[in-house]
Amino acid sequence: MDYYGPMRRHHRLIALALLITAAFNGVHAASPATTSPNNSNLGSELFYQLLVGELSAQSGDTGSAYSLMLDAARKANSPRLYERAVELALLSRSGTSALDAAQAWARAFPASREANR
User: Fold this and answer.
1) How many angstroms separate the CA atoms of 48 and 54, rounded?
2) Please, which residues have CB within 8 angstroms of residue 38's CB and are 6 or more apart in sequence?
3) Looking at the whole model, is its pTM more than 0.85?
4) Looking at the domain that runs over 43-117, which CATH code has it been given?
5) How many CA atoms lie within 13 A of 94 on its CB side?
6) Would you say 64 and 76 are in contact if contact means Cβ atoms under 8 Å apart?
7) What distance in Å separates the CA atoms of residue 49 and residue 33, rounded to the nearest whole number?
8) For 3-52, how does the pLDDT look when each residue is reduced to its tens digit (9 = 90+)?
């Protein structure tokens, strides 16, 4: 029995939560005390959806992860989430899903070079 396996999993979950939070907050240098902090537009429901999607991908259920990520991308209107949805569709070896996600990304951001490549 791997004693350290569950501990590594907890470290990964914590790192994943911090990564998602940092992605939406941006990494900023320390600001003067006179300015108020920038709050993220990431709500609890969207955060939970992203977390479940990434955990599904990590456990090998890339189909569910793709669906959750594409829905989150549409809700947040985020190009990074659209790109992640395309990646997850490709990981699940679903060309039609990848094409759907790429087309949704291009419709949402028609001026984006990445979305239209």
Assistant:
1) 10
2) 25, 26, 28
3) no
4) 1.25.40.10
5) 19
6) no
7) 33
8) 555 556 666 777 667 667 766 665 454 545 567 776 667 788 999 999 99
